[in-house]
Amino acid sequence: MSSPAPGATRRLKHWGWGYEDQQPDCAALEGIGRAVSERLGFEVSEISEPVPLEAIELPESRLRAPDELGDLFSDDRYDRVAHALGKAYRDVVRGFRGDYDAAPDLVAHPRSAEEVEVVLDFCAETGAAAIPFGGGTSVVGGVEPRMYGEYPGVVTIDLRRMDRVLEIDPISQAARIQAGATGPRLEEQLRDHGLTLRHFPQSFEYSTLGGWIATRAGGHFATLYTHIDDLVESVHAITPSGEWESRRLPGSGAGPSPDRMMIGSEGILGVITDAWVRVRERPRFKLSASVLFGDFAAGAEAVREISQSGLHPSNCRLLDASESETSSAGPPGKAVLVLGFESPHHPVDGAMGVVLDIARGHGGEAGEVRGGGESSRKVDSPPGKAARGAAPPVSEPGSDSVGAWRHAFLFAPYLRDSLVACGVLSETFETAITWDRFGDFHAEVIDRVRRAAAEASRAPAEGPGAPRVSCRFTHVYPDGPAPYYTVLAPARRGDEMAQWDEIKAAASDAVIDAGGTITHHHAVGRDHRPWYDRQRPEPFATALRAAKAELDPRALLNPGVLVDPDRPS
To answer: Quick one: which of 137, 260, 151, 268 has its CA closest to 209?
Structure first.
């Protein structure tokens, strides 16, 4: 029963982002520290080191699986530690410090839907809570066993052994894929058929199809097909009350959609085992360009017109001047709009030309249009050497703004681990708001978060050493943008979690008070619950609790997420 996690010998970090061999060495960390001091004005007085796996104090497992279940369950130290936390800033800090007071008692590694059913039966027999687990990239406490003391045991169900493309329908352009397939794994299998799902969240390397569906993940397309919702045809799941599988159809008006009930359910209704998803031919025609704006507001107006033009660029991401400077996407003081079009069938020059004209009409200065195809560097390319800490956190601005932004986007989660070691708080929050309210909304959120960050960080509100709060649009719609905010601040060493909790509460209050959503694509988890409870209609919460009680009568699945159901006495 103590067998290690499946897969190759190369292991993911137990505490942070990426693989163990991707942690920068001391010299690289010192270089990052110098760059932080020079570019951000934060004093980096020392470089800390993470608590090694063998030094972590881990509570004894309270559960033991029957021997006849073989290697379906593991109580291996690495397995339990690696499944105890997600990948939010507070998770990385706790992992870095060796804080694993609440780790799962067992980790299950099912290979099939039938084995998922066996695991749920075991949880029902023992009364253990069950946490579905994909890539473990949750940044909202979605996979953390905070219910540890309320149940006699906790079992995390790691689905990554279930990683195959099971069927392909080339006529309808759809594929049935197991829930544990990571982004690279499913794309590798689809590539052999000339197809792609083309869903590339920032966590693409490690997150899974089931996780994307359970959390309504946002992907590559900045317009039109922005969420995994738009790509799902049918969902298959195992619930404690039986099998759940919807009919595979291109669309249906037959009552509330069973798929939509499972999409975004965050593991509280059942364990997603596989899904039919819409795939497409791989793009052969691709163009990218960047546009500089004197201020963020002018860029936002250009993006609004572009999003309402019906042209649907695949990439339409606007970075404010601070975000642009940090990612080296543009010159100081300029907001940058990153644009892209792609098609498997026809050139996209015309559409790009129209969009650039729109941008120029709002004072934008368009840069070089770059072409590409399947032979060019893809947006789904792995970060490569940068992920191993060989590159500093920010490079000098170059002529390829799109490439600089893409590199910074892929590298950001790796960099955050290094910033923790350097004593820098680096975290994000995101939302969505309609265009008519965006200007006032953005100003209020930025102001409140800047003040909260300065107070929580005991830093000046302006000038050298002041926290930075920057913004970019990750996705845009005809009726509004999805702003994504980044907070950088000097950390209160040893008290980082309380510091971020203060900032996060202020940010969440500001977002909800100003009429936004608590999350556009990061999900609710446990971290967003207080604000999600304020956002949703109470009758809907009552209905969701009723569905939870019917499908999971013993309230074993991911307790504390979305709703707090009544547990049977």
So the answer is: 137
Predicted TM-score (pTM) of the model is 0.93
User: Which residues partner with 208 through β-bridges?
Assistant: 182
Q: 36 in a domain, yes or no? A: no
Q: Which residues of 216-243 are buried (b: 16+ CB within 10 A; e: fewer)?
A: bbbbbbbbebbbbbebbbbbbbbbbeee
Whether 382 maps to a domain, the answer reads: no
For 178-189, write each residue's pLDDT tens digit.
999 999 999 999
Instruction: Measure the N-to-C terminal CA separation of the chain; round to a whole number of Å.
Output: 31
Cβ–Cβ under 8 Å, residues 334 and 321: yes
Q: Shortest CA distance to 526 belongs to which of 94, 141, 103?
A: 141
Give the CATH number for residue 173.
3.30.465.10
Query: Same structural domain for residues 123 and 188?
Result: no
The residues pairing with 147 across neighbouring beta strands, listed in sequence order, are none
- Cβ atoms of residues 326 and 470 within 8 Å: yes
Residue-averaged pLDDT of the chain: 92
| pLDDT above 90: percentage of residues in the chain | 84
What residue type is 357 in one-letter code? Answer: D
Nearest to 128 by CA among 558, 560, 562: 558
Same domain, 99 and 153: yes
The stretches of 100-219 forming alpha helices (DSSP H) are: 113-126, 183-191, 209-215
Domains in the chain, number: 2
Domain of 194?
Answer: 165-281
| Per-residue pLDDT tens digits for 99-109 | 999 999 999 99
| Cα 477 from Cα 475, distance rounded (Å) | 7
